[in-house]
Amino acid sequence: MLTHARVVDLEDLIARDHAELDKGIEALSAWSPTAGQRVILDETRLGFVAHAEAISNVLHAALVHVPRTHLASRLLTATLAAHAEQEALLWRLARNVPNTVEWTETLTTLRTCTAAHHHDEPIGLLPLVRELLDGEAYAGFATRYATERLRALAMMSAVVARTRAKRGSAQV
Q1: Which DSSP state fits 34?
Q2: What is the average pLDDT across 31-56?
Q3: Which residues neighbour 164 within 8 Å (Cβ) at sequence distance 6 or greater?
Q4: Which of 12, 35, 83, 113 is the most exposed place for a label (fewest CB within 10 A)?
Q5: Residue 161 CA, distance from chain mean position
Q6: Residue % of the chain over a pLDDT of 90
Q7: The whole model's pTM is what?
């Protein structure tokens, strides 16, 4: 029996990344200072940075010929700004002591920021990009996104491993 593989869409891949970040944030909400929780924070940060880099590279390439004043360009700028804010909040979590006021406030801000971003992107930027590109070009961006994300993860994982080996610790 022949089965047809479902083509994975760019929006599906991004939604998966958002769901993984949400899971990581939820796991951090129950933080207790253990090595396992530190791994969760590191994994969440790495996954997020890979996602943000892949989005930046792929959507920039998709919109390179779109004027800066076009709504899609402005939405991409807003997406990149949201990613920068989320990355800064994840960095702040990594530098704070769990279950302190600073930790809790940072985690709450991160949760709010990601919820707004995860709500806006699939109803704003991504459908607009789909409309601007022909079907074949848009379909190719799912593959490019997955490739960019894996490339970023591989590069960051190697850096983290080297840094940990030099420091002899689990903290990066």
Answers
A1: S
A2: 83
A3: 170, 172
A4: 35
A5: 21
A6: 36
A7: 0.81
Question: Among 118, 143, 6, which Cα is nearest to 61's?
Answer: 143
Please give the average per-residue pLDDT across 15-26, as a whole number.
91
> Sign of the C-alpha dihedral, residues 157, 161, 164, 169?
positive
Read off the DSSP letter of residue 33. Answer: S
Which residues in 8-161 belong to E strands, given as ranges?
A: none
Distance CA 34, CA 171 (A): 12
Integer Cα distance of 158 and 150 in angstroms: 12
Residue whose pair of structure tokens reads 């002591």 in the numeric block: 97
Q: What is the mean pLDDT of the chain?
A: 84
**Gap between the Cα atoms of 75 and 22, Å rounded:** 22
Burial 4-19 (b: 16+ CB within 10 A, else e): eeeeebbbebbeebbe
* 3-state secondary structure (DSSP) of residue 139: helix
Distance of alpha carbon 164 from alpha carbon 156, whole angstroms: 12
pLDDT of residue 79: 93
Exposure of 141 in the CB half-sphere (CA atoms within 13 A): 24
What is the phi-psi region of residue 68: left when phi exceeds 0, alpha when psi lies from -120 to 50, beta otherwise? Answer: alpha
| Calpha distance 85→112 (Å, rounded) | 11
